[in-house]
Design goal:
Low-confidence stretches: none
Number of helices: 3
Distance between the termini: 8 Å
Order of helices and strands: HHH
Radius of gyration: 18 Å
Length: 76
Amino acid sequence: MRKVSEYRQHAKECRGLAKQSRSAEHRQMPLNIAATWESLANDRIRTAEGLERIANWKKPHGRAASPRNTQIGRSL
């Protein structure tokens, strides 16, 4: 979940830049970028939750799949 924290930190920095902007036009761009970072963080969380559900499905021999043993699990 380190990436989620990084994405949220980027969003926070963008909102800080927006606060420093003098015009509404200049303020809107960093706010839009902040919203994109937040969206990426939320997507990352949903993906991790989905992968966890998949990993907990039972294999034929009664063993749960491990996300570390899958190509997708390594990408988080």
